[in-house]
Amino acid sequence: MSAQIPPLVRDSGIPFDLFIQALTEQLDKAQAAMAIKARVGKLPLTFAVKEVSMDLRAFVQMVDEDVFLRPAGPGESEASTIKLALTTITKPMIEENAVDFKAEDPKFSLREALGDRITEDEQRRLERIGVRTVTQLNELKKTAGADVIARLSRMPVNRLQQALLSAAAPRVTRVEPGANGQATRRVHLSTPGLRGGRLPLVRAAGEAVPVVESGDDAIVLAPLAHQLGCEAELDFGEGEVARVELSEGRLGQWEAP
Fold it and tell me: At what angle do helices 157-167 and 146-153 cross, to 10 degrees?
């Protein structure tokens, strides 16, 4: 049996988060089975799981910044004792502590948006603090600031600043047909950092592109038919100029000053 276990698992154990997930998944299965028994089978519940406590003797190791647990074997007296306790929580507690995973186009993931401006290790560092998308990175920048993000993620400030600059570039989130049968389409752009009332100058195919709506972090354009699919220049003033193709899902880039 031990020969079938991968060397990393045999030597280092399993990641701590996977252990917790496996434990809670089995408890979820037990709870689901009891619910089916009561609701579908109309059978009385004879027991309920309220609390689970265990003392786990294991060796704790760090592998690539992840915590691994290797259960102690016979005679391994130097292992640590890890006390785990799981208890029930109420629905309000679940909602209060739940993470709001909003659906976001995969084209706007950190990897797609930042490309080679961010390494896999830096991406993992951001994911450890809950940042998995461009939107989350921009929201955290507004609420916490770059210095806080750099400290929590343990990323060099200059590398983080480059990532934040790329993440703040305009991107086309949606292209919708014109209302009431009109030929003019509406191009929705996410423009992190833009405040309502501050209209950028937009040009494509040598002509101006009308900005029909502007709000915090977003603008709506009404390009002419021949401007769709063309690269647009967005001039935000003060030397901030970006370029983005007027097609759904396209990511923009800032021009070098």
Answer: 120
φ, ψ for residue 240 (rounded to 5)?
-90, 105
Q: Is 86 exposed, middle or buried (0-12, 13-18, 19+ CB in 10 A)?
A: middle
249, 105 in Cβ contact below 8 A? yes
For 98-239, strand residue ranges (E) read 171-176, 186-190, 201-204, 207-208, 211-215, 218-221, 231-237
Q: In this predicted model, what pLDDT tens digit does every residue of 149-187 receive, in sequence order?
A: 998 888 888 888 888 888 888 989 899 886 665 567 899
The pTM (predicted TM-score) of the whole model is 0.56
Are 46 and 90 members of one domain? Answer: yes
Q: Is there a contact between 214 and 198 (Cβ–Cβ < 8 Å)? A: yes
The token duo for 194 is 């833009």
Query: Do 86 and 117 have their domain in common?
Result: no
Give the pLDDT band (50/70/90) at residue 204.
Answer: very high
76 has pLDDT over 80: yes
Once rounded to an integer, what is the mean pLDDT over residues 62-79? 85
Same domain, 17 and 65: yes
Q: Where are the beta strands (DSSP E) in 141-227?
A: 171-176, 186-190, 201-204, 207-208, 211-215, 218-221
Which amino acid does the sequence have at 194?
L
For residues 10 and 93, membership in a common domain is answered with yes
Question: Residue 60 is part of which domain span?
Answer: 2-97
Number of domains in the chain: 3
Amino acid identity for residue 124 in this structure:
R
Same domain, yes or no, for 223 and 160?
no
Terminal Cα-to-Cα distance of the chain (whole angstroms): 62
